[in-house]
Design brief:
Layout: E1 13-15, E2 37-39, E3 46-47, E4 61-63, E5 68-69, E6 85-87, E7 110-112, E8 119-121, E9 134-136, E10 141-143, E11 158-160, E12 182-184, E13 191-193, E14 206-208, E15 214-217, E16 231-233, E17 238-242, E18 256-258, E19 263-266, E20 280-282, E21 287-288, E22 304-306, H1 323-327, E23 335-337, E24 345-346, E25 360-362, E26 368-370, E27 384-386, E28 391-394, E29 408-410, E30 415-416, E31 432-434
Parallel strand pairs: 1-2, 2-4, 3-5, 4-6, 6-7, 7-9, 8-10, 9-11, 11-12, 12-14, 13-15, 14-16, 15-17, 16-18, 17-19, 18-20, 19-21, 20-22, 22-23, 23-25, 24-26, 25-27, 26-28, 27-29, 28-30, 29-31
Length: 454
């Protein structure tokens, strides 16, 4: 339990952030009528938010994040005209977002109540929060649709409504909020098409409608003309058509492009290799065709490259995968997954020039022929190497033993026809070894029994 100096009416601020306070907020909090800042974030305070807190007529900022508060949000909070920010995320608050649809007298700019158990729908009186810049409602149980007239919040910069059972379609009116920078509507139940009006949001930095599963149609070309973009995420939907390839696309600030698990087709647009700040490129699990660009090395910041489960091929006259030559310039790359594509080539020896930062390399079921390059031993940071389901033959090169960090080695469904190399015994961190459906001969090294077979 704890005690507060509520008998001091002249108290202007109370900040006891990140302590170990327990118990409830006592109703006498309302006696400190001149308080402007009230912060108890990062404690273990429980119980309801007392309605007497609305007596703090000069309160500007309320921080109660990361506690164990329960009950509903007092409606009277929204009638404190001096209140500029409310931070209630990471609690156990429940009940409707608004108690009633009465008048709201507020100059509120920041409302953050994500990670609670708030229910009900977003009612029309939210339009009375005309000064609102930041609205975070994610990770609750909010139902209904995004209001059709959401552009009534004309000063909104951040709108987070993801991870709720929100349904309906994307309102075209979102495109009228010219100040919008962050729009997160992932993990909802939104259906229908992406309105081209979103392309008018010239200040947009992050756009996420991932994991809605039922967005359909094409991605509007106008969206890829927003030069301020840092992240675009439409993964896990039912989008079709081509990734926009309009001439002159310029995304100088783009760090993440995540479009996996859709039904996109056509070639990988060349503009992607001009997005020099790109860190994440996820185009996996689509129906993309054509070749993998051979100038991906322009993406010096690239960390995650997921192109697996498509219909990508190699240049018809090329016998080796040339894009590996370029990837050697991606010195921050960690995940490289290009498996389940009909590449129909051999692995070049230049694979050994890949960055030692690569942890996971997956090129399974990709119609790879020939030998495993001995240079693979140079990619020293590998923890997972997946080459299974190809037409590789010959030796397991002894250079495999250089991969001291390797935990998973997947060489199943090959045409390997020699003995298991003693080099495997040098892989002290190996916990999974798949060698089934090969033509291995000879004596199994005793060290193999120490490896946990998956």
């Amino acid at each position: 339990m704890w005690k507060g100096p509520w008998y001091v009416p002249e108290l202007r601020a109370l900040d006891r952030t990140n302590n170990s306070l327990t118990g409830m907020i006592p109703p006498p909090v309302g006696n400190a009528t001149k308080m402007m800042n009230f912060s108890l974030s990062g404690n273990r305070v429980s119980g309801n938010i007392p309605k007497e807190i609305s007596n703090l007529s000069q309160l500007a900022d309320l921080y109660l994040t990361d506690n164990q508060l329960t009950g509903s949000i007092p409606a009277a909070l929204f009638n404190i005209s001096s209140l500029l920010s409310i931070h209630l995320r990471y609690n156990r608050l429940s009940g409707p977002l608004w108690i009633d649809e009465g008048n709201i007298v507020s100059n509120l700019k920041f409302l953050s109540i994500s990670n609670n158990q708030i229910s009900g729908s977003i009612l029309s009186n939210i339009c009375q929060l005309t000064e609102l810049k930041w609205l975070s409602l994610s990770f609750n149980n909010i139902t209904g649709d995004i209001p059709r007239d959401i552009d009534c919040l004309s000063k909104l910069e951040g709108f987070y409504i993801g991870d709720n059972p929100i349904k309906g379609t994307i309102p075209t009116s979102l495109g009228n909020i010219s100040t919008l920078q962050y729009l997160y509507c992932g993990n909802n139940r939104i259906v229908g098409q992406i309105p081209p009006e979103l392309g008018k949001l010239s200040n947009l930095r992050q756009l996420s409608f991932d994991h809605n599963f039922n967005l359909i149609g094409r991605i509007p070309e106008a969206i890829f003309n927003i030069s301020s973009f840092e992240r675009i995420d439409f993964s896990f939907n039912n989008l079709s058509g081509r990734i926009p390839t309009t001439t002159g696309l310029h995304l100088p600030n783009l760090k993440g492009l995540t479009l996996g698990f859709n039904q996109l087709e056509g070639e990988i647009p060349l503009f992607i290799t001009n997005a020099s700040k790109l860190e994440i490129l996820e185009l996996n699990n689509n129906s993309l065709t054509g070749t993998i660009p051979t100038n991906l090395g322009n993406l010096h910041e690239l960390r995650y490259l997921f192109l697996h489960d498509n219909q990508l091929t190699n240049e018809p006259r090329e016998h080796e995968l040339r894009f590996f030559n370029s990837l050697a310039d991606c010195r921050m790359l960690r995940y490289l997954q290009v498996g389940n594509n009909p590449l129909n080539v051999t692995l070049p020896n230049s694979i050994g020039n890949l960055s030692s930062t690569i942890e996971n390399f997956n090129i399974v079921d990709a119609h790879i022929n020939g030998l495993i390059p001995t240079s693979i031993g140079n990619v020293s940071g590998l923890t997972v190497l997946s080459l299974g389901g190809n037409n590789l033959m010959g030796n397991i090169p002894p250079e495999i033993g250089k991969l001291k960090q390797l935990q998973g080695l997947y060489l199943h469904y090959f045409k390997l026809h020699v003995h298991i190399s003693e080099a495997v015994c040098n892989l002290s961190n190996l916990v999974q070894l798949y060698l089934e459906h090969n033509e291995l001969i000879g004596v199994i090294p005793e060290c193999i029994v120490k490896v946990k077979r998956g």
